[in-house]
């Protein structure tokens, strides 16, 4: 047995050398490509195509998601040889927004935590960050209003999306009985996502909404007799003990994030397009405005209304459709909608989430 173990370990050592050589060879090729590129070095459509191909070619035993994550990190590291990408997200460290940023850009990306969603937009628009990551909707609590409200007025384009499964944990500084906790900090959406669990297990605790889950964890670490509802990353970052895990009411709870930047991806083969519309104030206007998508065979995956903040009872409609704006049927539908709608702005076409 010892001889067989030594033989297998020797094979692994040899394979590790070959993997290392291949990684450095890939990095050299990426650097050579970088010298030929003009403009944005990061190409989300190209990365999406690579990751889809890797998943299709994977024969195991590693899962498709595992190999995709590994190759995401490889691409991130190779891109950072030229210049690391800076990414603004809603901070502080330990938020689900940080998790989304690292999932999409890899750990070679340089994360820049900001105190608000508005500041994410500002940093990217001013050039302080290359890209921004903002939450736009949750599968149980719906839209993140502030992210949507800023989109019609920004020159930034949507150039990617990230889906993050959300698992909430109750945490505090040191182990304690649940009955001894008088106050719980968390973001308002997280408190809503754990509403029934909190009712059943902490019925008498005061629930205090703060700017982010990571901020909740920070306060729980500093203030005695308190707890926070946040993600695992926040517990690790602030040195908190997890008292109860996965306390979200819906086990499939997922948040969708959008990537914002000064870049328009080319078609990747499996894309989405986001846009904002307003309808003329007359009977049947919304139906008429959306009809071209149906007649052109374009599937609509999101339809969300928000007050326009221009006039009383005036609304903007945030729409996601399948396909890229350069696809023939999508382009034709958008042109037709543009003639009917009171207002139209294409926020961006981008690869559908791969991971």
Automatic annotation (TrEMBL):
One of its GO terms (molecular function) is prephenate dehydratase activity. GO terms for biological process: chorismate metabolic process; L-phenylalanine biosynthetic process. Pathway: Amino-acid biosynthesis; L-phenylalanine biosynthesis; phenylpyruvate from prephenate: step 1/1; Metabolic intermediate biosynthesis; prephenate biosynthesis; prephenate from chorismate: step 1/1. It catalyses: chorismate = prephenate; prephenate + H(+) = 3-phenylpyruvate + CO2 + H2O. Its EC number is 4.2.1.51, 5.4.99.5. Keywords: Amino-acid biosynthesis, Aromatic amino acid biosynthesis, Cytoplasm, Isomerase, Lyase, Multifunctional enzyme, Phenylalanine biosynthesis. One of its GO terms (cellular component) is cytoplasm. It is found in: Cytoplasm. Residues 274-351 form the ACT domain. SMART domains: CM_2. Residues 86-262 form the Prephenate dehydratase domain. The record marks 255 as: Essential for prephenate dehydratase activity. Residues 1-86 form the Chorismate mutase domain. Catalyzes the Claisen rearrangement of chorismate to prephenate and the decarboxylation/dehydration of prephenate to phenylpyruvate. PANTHER family: PREPHENATE DEHYDRATASE P PROTEIN, PREPHENATE DEHYDRATASE-RELATED. This is Bifunctional chorismate mutase/prephenate dehydratase.
């Amino acid at each position: 047995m010892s001889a067989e173990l030594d033989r297998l370990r020797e094979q692994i050592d040899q394979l590790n050398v070959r993997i290392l050589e291949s990684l450095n060879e890939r990095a050299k090729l990426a650097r050579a490509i970088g010298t030929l590129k003009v403009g944005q070095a990061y190409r989300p459509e190209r990365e999406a195509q690579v990751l889809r191909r890797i998943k299709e070619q994977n024969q195991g035993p590693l899962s498709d998601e595992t190999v995709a994550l590994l190759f995401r990190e490889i691409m991130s590291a190779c891109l950072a040889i030229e210049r690391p990408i800076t990414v603004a997200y809603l901070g502080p460290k330990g938020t689900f927004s940080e998790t989304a940023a690292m999932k999409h850009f890899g750990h070679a990306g340089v994360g820049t935590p900001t105190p608000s969603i508005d500041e994410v937009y500002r940093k990217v628009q001013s050039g302080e960050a290359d890209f921004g990551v903002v939450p736009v909707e949750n599968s149980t609590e719906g839209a993140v209003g502030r992210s949507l409200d800023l989109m019609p007025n920004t020159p930034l384009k949507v150039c990617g999306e990230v889906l993050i499964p959300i698992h909430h944990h109750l945490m505090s500084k040191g182990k304690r009985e649940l009955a001894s906790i008088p106050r719980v900090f968390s973001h308002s959406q997280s408190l809503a996502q754990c509403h029934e669990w909190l009712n059943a297990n902490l019925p008498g605790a005061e629930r205090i909404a703060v700017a982010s889950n990571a901020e909740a964890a920070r306060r729980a670490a500093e203030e005695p007799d308190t707890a926070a509802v946040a993600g695992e990353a926040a517990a690790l970052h602030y040195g908190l003990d997890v008292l109860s895990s996965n306390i979200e009411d819906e086990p499939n709870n997922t948040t969708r994030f959008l990537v914002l930047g000064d870049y328009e991806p080319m078609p990747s083969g499996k894309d989405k397009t986001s846009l904002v519309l307003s309808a003329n104030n007359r009977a049947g206007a919304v139906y008429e405005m959306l009809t071209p998508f149906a007649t052109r065979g374009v599937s609509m995956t999101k339809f969300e209304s928000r007050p326009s903040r221009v006039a009383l009872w005036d609304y903007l409609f945030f729409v996601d459709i399948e396909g890229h704006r350069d696809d023939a049927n999508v382009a034709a539908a958008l042109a037709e909608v543009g003639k009917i709608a009171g207002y139209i702005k294409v926020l961006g076409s981008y690869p559908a989430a791969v991971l």
